[in-house]
# Entry
Amino acid sequence: RGPAGADTGWLQYLHAAGQSQPLVNGGAIPVLPGQAADFTVTVTNPTSTPVHLLSAEVIPVYRYSAAHLTHVGVATNHDMVGAGRGWPSHVRVEPFDGASLAHGQSNIIIGVTGGTPGHDYAVAGLRIAYRSGDRVRYLKAWSVGVACVRAKIGPVYPGCPATLGTVLTTVRRVLHLPA
# Structure
């Protein structure tokens, strides 16, 4: 296994050029109970052999309620969602299950949510199962998402960015990355 629990197989998490450590970014957005908060998880296939996606599950964040994965798809181009609200997102996606990822970068668009107003739900990223040839492999792809569930959506939510900062620091600490 490689750094941060990454499989040393074909599919890789996003990392800075020349680095083996993951590049961990994130987004946060207020949503209504049950409404999807949309984010991007980026992966790379460095080989010419396509991989086939099988399943995805959220990676929880210690001391935070895990967001429920409501939707997952693969962007049909290189568009991304930093933080969006509602599904389908503004990015066109194809179904995740069975999708084929060719050489290069692919953006996986996820929708996550929670049910209790006033509560923040977080994910550290996705654990992705995929097939390469006749072998099933797994990848932990890091990308923080925070769904700040509120009873109503208004113009200002100072707690949501603060929660994102705390969650990013927690995930980076767990991965032994600089804060």
The chain is about 10% helix and 45% strand. Residues 1-8 have pLDDT under 50 and may be disordered. The helical segments are 159-174. The two ends are 23 Å apart (CA to CA).
